[in-house]
């Protein structure tokens, strides 16, 4: 791919923003690498050879680590990347960010608890399907005062425990859903039984994020023991087709946690329309990401985090990966 001044400028701005706004507090390694790229014209030209949709920092950094780059300072990382430039460009062009974080289920669960079961669960952007098992995980919802709500599957404690902070003065509905069918749609679905899937998904965990890689490994074992139906294709085009396979006596719920941000504006709204036409719709999105809310979300008054919604009705604010939850629906119960 021929690089241009505009492409290198875009790389510089994107990596500077990542170093300033996204990596701090999550990964010092990634912050240093991104800041280094932002100040290195040669590396900007190298990364500009990657297709625009495949050159975002989390993808590039994960690919270099997958191929053997050291998790060291910027000088070591950049020297390795320059020495393996062709392999990095080729691998980035065939990969995509498929952050399959099971902890998102801690944010999805209260919205799912509002849906009468049994539930047929269909996720758009499912990756390996790890967010299709909210009924198979254990949960610890903790308040700052030490109060804790514990949930476990009926057949015994789960090997995957999802811990999330409860904020605010309202108690969300917390109950494990009855899921009788699960399916996912993804442009490039990953087989949870394939060892390469584990290598890639754990490689997408940022250095310094304690516990995430092991959580993904354990969730993969659950998915591999009972694989969901995974269909390759565009969500907006495939939702109706896959939904038609669900048991007719179950309530179909389409979830879109984290995937709409990866779509162009028209595709986001086409996916939302298809989800709502197929059944109930649960999502976790930045408030300004789309116009699928039933009532406008005042971003200026939003408490931070993403919005969790059921059928477009915002019911909670949450960390985008499920690390905390603040219930905001008016009919929520008061804390126990």
Provide a descriptive summary of the structure in words.
Helix content is 36%, strand content 18%. With 336 residues, it is α/β, with parallel strands linked by helices. Helix 1 packs antiparallel against helix 2. It is globular and about 55 Å long.
Question: What labels would you give this structure?
Answer:
336 residues; alpha/beta; eleven-stranded mixed sheet; 11 helices; 11 strands
In short:
The chain is α/β, with parallel strands linked by helices and 336 residues long. The chain has eleven helices and eleven strands.
Based on secondary structure, the structural category is alpha/beta
List low-confidence stretches: 332-336
What is the mean predicted local confidence, pLDDT? 93
Largest sheet: 11 strands, mixed
Number of helices: 11
Structural topology:
Layout: H1 5-22, H2 28-38, H3 41-47, H4 57-67, H5 74-83, H6 85-94, H7 104-112, E1 119-124, E2 138-142, E3 148-151, E4 161-167, E5 179-186, H8 195-203, H9 212-225, E6 229-232, H10 235-243, E7 251-255, H11 265-278, E8 280-285, E9 306-310, E10 313-318, E11 324-327
Parallel strand pairs: 1-5, 1-7, 2-4, 4-11, 5-6, 7-8
Antiparallel strand pairs: 2-3, 8-9, 9-10, 10-11
């Amino acid at each position: 791919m021929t690089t241009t001044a505009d492409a290198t400028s875009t790389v510089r701005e994107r990596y500077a923003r990542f170093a300033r706004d996204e990596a701090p507090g999550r990964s010092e390694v990634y912050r240093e690498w991104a800041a280094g790229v932002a100040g290195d014209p040669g590396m900007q030209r190298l990364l500009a050879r990657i297709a625009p949709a495949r050159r975002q920092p989390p993808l590039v950094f994960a690919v270099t680590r997958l191929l053997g780059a050291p998790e060291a300072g910027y000088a070591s990382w950049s020297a390795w990347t320059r020495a393996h430039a062709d392999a990095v460009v080729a691998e980035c062009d065939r990969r995509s960010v498929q952050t399959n974080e099971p902890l998102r289920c801690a944010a999805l669960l209260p919205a799912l608890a509002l849906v009468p079961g049994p539930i047929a669960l269909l996720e758009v952007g499912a990756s390996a399907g790890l967010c299709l098992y909210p009924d198979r995980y254990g949960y610890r919802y903790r308040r700052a005062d030490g109060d804790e709500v514990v949930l476990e599957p009926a057949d015994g404690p789960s090997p995957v425990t999802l811990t999330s902070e409860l904020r605010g003065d309202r108690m969300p509905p917390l109950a494990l859903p009855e899921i009788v069918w699960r399916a996912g749609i993804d442009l490039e679905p990953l087989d949870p039984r394939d060892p390469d899937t584990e290598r890639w998904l754990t490689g997408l965990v940022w250095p310094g994020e304690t516990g995430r890689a092991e959580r993904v490994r354990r969730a993969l074992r659950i998915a591999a023991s009972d694989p969901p139906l995974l269909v390759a294709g565009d969500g907006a085009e495939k939702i109706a087709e896959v939904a038609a396979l669900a048991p007719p006596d179950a309530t179909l719920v389409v979830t879109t946690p984290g995937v709409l941000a990866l779509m162009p504006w028209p595709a986001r709204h086409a996916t939302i329309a298809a989800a709502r036409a197929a059944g109930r719709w649960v999502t976790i999105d930045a408030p300004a990401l789309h116009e699928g809310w039933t009532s406008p979300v005042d971003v200026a008054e939003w408490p931070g985090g993403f919005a969790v919604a059921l059928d477009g009705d915002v019911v909670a604010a949450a960390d985008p990966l499920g690390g905390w939850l603040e219930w905001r629906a008016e009919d929520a119960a008061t804390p126990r």
